[in-house]
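Design job #97: recover the sequence.
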């Protein structure tokens, strides 16, 4: 579980799923004999009212054994994060902190070796990420024998999401007068994470 103070808790499913879609390179965590984690590109979909995460691992990855055994898996979708200087606050004394957004997905996992399922997953993943390219690579243009050999070296998995937990720590505990200064300071930086945190804060200020 993740520590969720009420003022940092995000429970709106639309907000949580939008975060998952935007930050879809998740950290898959399982515990068989020991904790193990893998960074995995994932797809999320709803079928018959149930949310699922779908991905794949290389067969030599020892985490495959955990997925084949079933049990609960955790996937962490980390969003933008930024250091917050106490010099931006109106009142002192104060201490530094960190603002960030993260979503945790928990659910039962199952391993999948079916090649039709894997073929569909890989095609959808590649189409999703190739869409931004000027000359998209197409899975269906590759030799069938080559693709079959590649699929022999991976294992698919699916996680039926039992719960989503969102923590959007965005200075909600600070006085309203502090937050515009924090946003402005973040926007003055030159890194994408600071700008991402500022964007999330502006969205909440507008509500």
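Job complete. Output follows.
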């Amino acid at each position: 579980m993740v520590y969720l103070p009420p003022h940092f808790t995000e429970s709106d499913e639309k907000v949580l799923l939008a975060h998952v879609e935007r930050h879809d390179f998740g950290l898959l965590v399982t515990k068989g004999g020991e904790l193990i984690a893998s960074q995995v590109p994932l797809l999320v979909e709803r079928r018959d009212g149930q949310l699922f995460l779908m991905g794949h691992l290389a067969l030599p990855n020892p985490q495959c054994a955990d997925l084949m055994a079933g049990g609960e898996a955790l996937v962490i979708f980390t969003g933008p994060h930024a250091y917050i200087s106490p010099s931006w606050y109106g009142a002192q004394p104060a201490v530094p902190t960190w603002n960030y957004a993260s979503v945790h997905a928990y659910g039962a996992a199952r391993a999948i070796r079916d090649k039709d399922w894997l073929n569909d997953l890989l095609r959808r993943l590649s189409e999703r990420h190739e869409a931004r390219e000027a000359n998209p690579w197409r899975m269906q243009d590759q030799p069938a024998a080559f693709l079959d050999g590649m699929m022999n070296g991976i294992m698919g998995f699916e996680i039926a999401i039992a719960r989503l937990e969102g923590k959007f720590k965005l200075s909600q505990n600070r006085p309203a007068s502090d937050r515009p200064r924090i946003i402005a300071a973040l926007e003055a930086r030159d890194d994408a994470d600071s700008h991402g945190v500022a964007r999330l804060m502006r969205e909440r200020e507008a509500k």
